[in-house]
């Protein structure tokens, strides 16, 4: 067994409402939405119009810069809406479900297929976007060959799903096939990173075809960027690909059955959920069904994803392409009079400035209130306490703000993604939108290198 990698820096935000280990039978969904905004750097080229009939696997839009990368419909039905934002930016393609028709992409054994044949099937089916790359945290470029591929088998975000429970209710044969396919796309290694706190009990401990690593520690230990940084760092000119564990199942399903079926098991969690549990759902599905009758009274913020990196959606919104949970927490539309002077036994605090620091096992109800506004961006040293990377986060952020490309390179822009800085944003005393700054820097690097 590999040595357990222990991460010391980070922060576990203890929230109420973790999902009970109960898998709810699949709830019928009538609408699905595919959102180009889920894919950073994408310039979409629409391939359908309202009233078009599509099958599961039919092309909805492509990447204008890399037209071979297709984004396909998760279900069969009718295109009922194409939502645009400012300057006609494409936000969503909405499909009303009818029938159960799948495009047949043909079965195949990855062990006997060539890398080009595997790439072609993933691109044709629309499953290629599940493969992302460092640097830049964008959909992987098919023309490149990565030095390694990472599969993260744990998630340490607040209220995140237990991947061991997920895999107990999944097809392990699909996982094996998916790993075989990914292994043909690199001459390096496929790294499967598992939970170091459950080594002997993990259902994935005997998975073949990948080099297993075990990691243990507070969030963000489960982030692919942290795992890549400690196991196979990205240097200038190098590329590493990474895939979510459940997306590997979808890849295996494509080769075993010949169809595009991007199913997953997600956690419905949060303090405002009356019955937090696990649901089987398809990527892009409307969350109306799983939220109906499951939310407490009052104003609630529904989030596709976790509270640190997720996207706010309505109760009729759609599950994000890469998201593995839906979270519901209270809205913070209230003013707290002299909140800073109270003992704060019911408030979670990183700085240990409240009485809650004396209650290490307590779970908290956290709302969306910022507790202050944006202020001077000053050196505090708090970012380094929650970012387990050998970089200087404050200096990197300031290099991005002044658009100093050379300094950004030297300070580690190639290794990071927005999610790696989510805790920095959470603990930031200046209330700076740090994830947006990181995304701005990554987008600038993509433009400079293209």
Tell me about this structure.
By secondary structure, this protein is an alpha/beta fold. The protein has three domains: 1-9 and 26-262, no CATH class; 263-341, Roll (Ubiquitin-like (UB roll)); 383-449, no CATH class. It is 21% helix and 21% strand. It has helices at 115-125, 163-168, 172-183, 224-231, 245-257, 288-291, 383-386, 393-401, 405-410, 422-427, 434-449; strands at residues 4-6, 23-24, 31-34, 44-46, 53-54, 59-63, 70-72, 77-84, 90-97, 132-134, 138-139, 148-152, 189-195, 211-216, 240-244, 263-269, 277-282, 300-304, 311-313, 325-330. Strands 1-14-13-12-15-10-11 form a seven-stranded mixed β-sheet. Strands 2-17-16-20-18-19 form a six-stranded mixed β-sheet, covered by helices on one side. A four-stranded antiparallel β-sheet has the order 3-9-8-5, with no helix packed on it. A hairpin with a 7-residue loop joins strand 16 (263-269) and strand 17. Helix 3 packs across helix 5 (245-257). The longest helix is centred in the last third of the chain and has 16 residues, at 434-449. The protein is globular, with a radius of gyration of 22 Å. The two termini are 41 Å apart.
